[in-house]
Amino acid sequence: MTTTGLAEPFLRAQLETLGLAVEYVRAEGDTLYRRGEDGREIPVLDLVGGFGATILGHHHPEVTSLAQELLAAQVPVHAQFSLHPYAETVARRLNDILRRETGDPGPYLAVFANSGAEAVEAAVKHAELDRGLKAAALLERIGESIERARRAARDGAPLSPAAQRLADGGDFEALAAAVTAVNRARAEEPPVLLALSGSFHGKLIGSVQLTHNPAVREPFRALAAPCRFVPAEDPETLAAAIAEERRTVLGLALCGGAVDLVEHQLPRLCALLLEPVQGEGGVRPLTAGYAREVQRICAEADCPIVVDEVQSGMGRTGTFLASSAIGLRGDYYVLAKSLGGGIAKAAVTLVHHGRHRPEFELLHSSTFAKDAFSTLIAARTLDLLEADGGALYRRAAERGERILKQLSGVRDDFKDVVVDVRGRGLMLGLELRDQSDSPSPVLRELSRAGVLGYAAAGHLLNAHALRVFPTASAVTTLRIEPSVGITDARIDQAEAALRALCEVLRAQDGERLLGR
Ligand code: PMP
Fold it and tell me: In 3-state terms, what secondary structure has residue 284?
């Protein structure tokens, strides 16, 4: 350990190695301030944007002043098990927005939470409750069908050839026991969770299993239900995976006077989760064509779709929901990050009423979720997003296009070090070329250790006062997620810094990259 400390000392040592161990003392708009040796504040242009949490920028004046007013007015933060009119306001506004963007009348019922991962888990928990209740209802109906068949058998109805085979030559009771055993075994199989390769849905015990990156997922695989990952933009593989997971259970019915077997589809698919623009997977938007196929396949299989808009939502990509721009409709939507206006911890899971289970409200809760402070901040944030007939969404799209154009210029001029630039609105990524075979031992080593993107971030911070970070699972992609307030001058500043970084990489100058 190169440093002492009790708060994540290993991480701190890593940050120090990469030139990223910086303390920020103030934040405003797209700027974080660090303190110089002379005590003066040094502005840093922040394109990390709280990993997507600051669509309005740091300390938007209206959000911050509301927070101050709420504390001054002693608004009760803790009033669990009472009425929550502010949460209701947020839920209503979200429903208005969803109705406008998706065309679905809904309504969607809201479950509040504190973080993205928690809200993802609430969606999955709800989907599993719904699946379990449907399976239980089916098994109950089957139990009733067995009773009816038993009465018919007592009245002399014979067993059909298929029923005789399952009863292994035995009587009706042998058949009933065999049917019950088959059904029990099938119903006890774990639920099927599906997500896309490259996905990121959180890092808690349940949600980390839905996050594709094996390095963060596998150490914890024994703790929660595993997920089946399918490649993005490949509907055939999704359809094949769903077909493979299909299970039926058996019921009995009278057919032509004989007791016969009937197959029923067992609800096994808990949910398919997807991000309309994969964020931590390297900023990869899904296409409208793929979304259409996913919608069709999931509707046919009755597989609920959980649209994770934790990073892409709240107007970042030019519409409130990134999914609405590609025509993807969710049974569940998950929002977090910018919902808290850049200062509160707020998240919400929206459940389509067609799947909603009232029982869930008594089964799931969290002390801080739905508190007046975070929901009032969320309501004000939604007001700001929706003001002036959606001017903010148009601005996010316009700013994003401008940045993308400038980044594309960088890519065109530095094809040897930049692989790709991509994204939508203010959710953009610039992918650096892998340097594992670089003639520079430093670049080679950084690349092979998976920290080239972090070293680039350290260089941009220390040489150009620009804060960017790689995405969590695709570590050579630099994430660019400023606020809607980003100015032309700051975009130009970022472009100049990225061009300077590319010059250093083109020169294969590892020492300079590390500021030595
Ligand atoms: N889903 C997505 C799409 C995310 O990008 C993230 C965070 N990067 C999460 C879930 C988890 O959110 P949190 O960090 O608030 O738990």
Answer: strand
